[in-house]
Prior knowledge:
This protein is mainly α. It has 10 helices and no strands. The longest helix has 27 residues, at 157-183.
Amino acid sequence: MDNDVVLLNAARMMNKDTLIKIFDLYSRPLFNFALRLCGDPLMDDHIVGDVFAKLLEQLACGSGPKTNLRSYLYETAYHLVIDEARYRHRTVPLEVADTYRVHNDSASTGLENRLLVEAVLQAIRNDLTDDQKHVVILRFLEGFNLIQTATIIGKAVNHVKVIQSRAIAALRKAVNRQKMTAIYKPQSAKSTKVLVEKSTAIR
């Protein structure tokens, strides 16, 4: 957060190097975040541009974030995605995000880890409500705490706790169901063992 304050103070002076640094730090994470929510790379690219345009506009008139730049940028991106989804009457699937993630995984990522991630992502996609998906993505994929997540999605912290608890329960049930299905597939024995060993991480 201290680093955010330094960046924001320089950004308010319209320091070119600082503005470029902010863009370089957050443009790719914001794009990936938007992609997880709506699965439309072209729209996500426009959303990231709109996020930074709004930031510049607010900084130029003396407003905008005072301390937590990262939360502010994600909150802006989140509401732009939701507004666009409502306008287009879209759902917020993870299919394209899954494809993007797989194509951008490093070669060193183990098959077993990828299988576990696939199982969790499938459960997120098929077994969670939109609110649950958003909370899980923000909390466990983007690393925000409960207060930050509540701020970003515009809900009370206690409400976020309830959503998170129900989401984890649904994920645990869905992954267990996938494991039981895999048990009856001989070619998947190794993958099943990995899921059984690592499913305790979903708590």
